Amino acid sequence: IVVVVVVVMRGALILQVMALAALTFIGAQLSLLYLQLPSLTPILTTLKSSSASSTSSSASIVLPRGSDKHGAPISKLAAKIRANAAKDSVPSDSSSSVSEEDKHISSKGHQEEGYDKEAAYADGYSVSDRVHAFYYPWYGAPAIDGDWQHWNHELMPHWNSAVTNRYPKGKHQPPLDIGANYFPLLGPYSSLNASVVETHFKWFRRAGIGVCVVSWYPPDSADPAQEASIEHSDKVVPLLLTTAEKLGIKIAFHIEPYHGRSATSVARDLKYISEKYGASPSFYRSRHHGNRPVVYVYDSYHIGAGEWATILSPSGSNTIRGSEYDAVMLALWVIGDQPTRGTGIESFVRSSGFDGAYTYFAGSKFAWGSNPSNWKRIRQLTRKAGMLFSPSVGPGYIDTRVRPWNGANTISRSQGRHYDSVFKEAVGTCPDFISITSFNEWHEGTQIEPAMSLQDLEALRLAEARQDRTSLPKGWNSLEGYYDYLPEGTFAYLDKTREWVAKFDNGRCHESSN
Questions:
Q1: How confident is the model at residue 120 (pLDDT cuts 50, 70, 90)?
Q2: CB 110 within 8 A of CB 242
Q3: CA distances from 148 to 239, 248, 342, 346, 424 (A)
């Protein structure tokens, strides 16, 4: 604090006015800097549990300590998170458990009696079925699933053991310590929580996204990265379809790699999906492409073009073409940095019989295909070959709470500017679809799902500290490594998406790219 004492009699009034103006300017700049701090740096707290043996060398950013403004909602959220974390608890919201009807949706689809669809659409939002968002249904919480799922992700080792040894090991310990650099506004939820799914699809509507592309494994097939996990993938589909029908959202499928996946097994998957879910009103079929479902195939290049042709070529020995299981099949465009030489992914997609390609990765660092500067070229190639194109846009990338050694691949959100930039590039190619990576892939920080502000997260942590007066509960002793969406705001990426969807649907490409 600088105190200016003016003792000169003549001109005292002028000097005082000048000093007051200077102090006001300095105060405004300091306030602005304070408001920007949470968006620039993750919280580095020096508060530790009584059992902590190590000390932090990081500087601390001091945030407000849970004022009355945050008290009531934070207390309710804290209670809800504690309930989700309790294996034997019954969720307070009766809609948070999966009903038997949801579990056993009929092949003809589900229509809830007395449900007023007009009321569901009274939000005033419209959605585009040409904008798709990748959705991950693999999250679990003890209250519904018996244990944490994916929020307790392990710290993955580097392929070089010497690098691995420089970083922490083990698994995250929810509910506050999760395998993500952002903390969901809903807390670490279960993907089988019906109220969570309903909230998600209401957010889809706010964002203008018409199609939820669910990450999918066949029944009893686990995510290879989580071998001991109980996967929700197929189990959650009936709940997604039921809720999507209520809210005017469509469901498509993103077939993930699984042990033993082959072209033949994928043909079986398409048959299974079509027979079990195809009659649901919320099962997505593209009206511009023969009313066929749209299926994304992740890591499709791991299977040879010749093998794919057996199911995707009209003359293939096990072809799906022309059958009731036919689908618009999109391959991942990731390899082939020089596609014009005929040895890249363009020739693979064409010769394998895929209908088109998507790029998935949320940044230019990962592959030639995911670099927005190459999208116009990819669009030229796909259009010339009569194929479809779905460039994938994302708000950024950070996975250092899962891969702590991977900081070099972080892609800053730059206060939303990165998302605006890649979306602009995607719209500029006049693609058939635009896919968003992702709605809720929290591990890699690509989500547009609303995240809690650091201020509220700190208040939540302190609320838990007050609940357990002796020491902080396990896993709640540090907020180091977390970020938020400030200064844009908690819902900023939903609203940014809506703006770009409007430009895509109403722009000059609308009539030409069907």
A1: low
A2: yes
A3: 20, 30, 47, 41, 38
Helix (H) or strand (E) holding 393: strand 392-393
Token reading at 198? 């309903």
Phi, psi at residue 394, to the nearest 5°?
A: -145, 155
| HEC assignment per residue over 407-460 | HHHCECCHHHHHHHHHHHHHHHCCCCCEEECCCCCHHHCCCCCCECCHHHHHHH
pLDDT digits (tens, 9 = 90+) for 249-273: 999 999 999 989 999 999 999 999 9
Nearest in space to 181 (alpha carbons), one of 442, 365, 414: 442
The H or E element containing residue 32 is: helix 12-40
For 102, the enclosing helix (H) or strand (E) is helix 100-103
Distance CA 140, CA 193 (A): 9
Closest Cα to residue 251, out of 134, 118, 103? Answer: 134
Task: List, in sequence order, the alpha helices (H) in 208-354.
Answer: 237-247, 263-277, 305-312, 345-352
Cα gap 218→255, rounded to integer Å: 9
Phi, psi of 403 (to 5 degrees): -120, 85
Torsion sign over Cα 220, 226, 232, 233: negative
DSSP 338: -
**Cα–Cα dist 183/141, whole Å:** 15
Q: Are 89 and 143 in contact (CB under 8 A)?
A: yes
Read off the tokens for 209.
């996204």
- Cα separation, 132 vs 213, in Å, equals 6
Strands (E), 176-265: 209-216, 250-255
CA dist 452 and 157 (Å) reads 28
The 10 Å Cβ neighbour count of residue 146 is 12
Cα–Cα distance, 430 to 440 (Å, whole number): 26
Tell me: the pLDDT tens digits for 223-233? 655 544 446 68
362 strand-pairing partners: none
> Model-level pTM?
0.79
Distances 477 to 74, 334, 379 between C-alpha atoms, Å: 17, 40, 49
Report residue 283: phi and psi, to 5°. Answer: -75, 120
DSSP E strands in 365-414: the ranges are 388-390, 392-393
Query: Half-sphere exposure of residue 125, counting CA atoms within 13 Å on the CB side?
Result: 23
Neighbours of 406 (CB within 10 A): 16
Task: Report, in angstroms and rounded to the nearest whole number, the Rg of the chain calculated over CA atoms.
Answer: 25
Segment (H or E) for 73 = helix 68-85
**Which candidate, 297, 293, 384, places its Cα nearest to that of 347?**
384
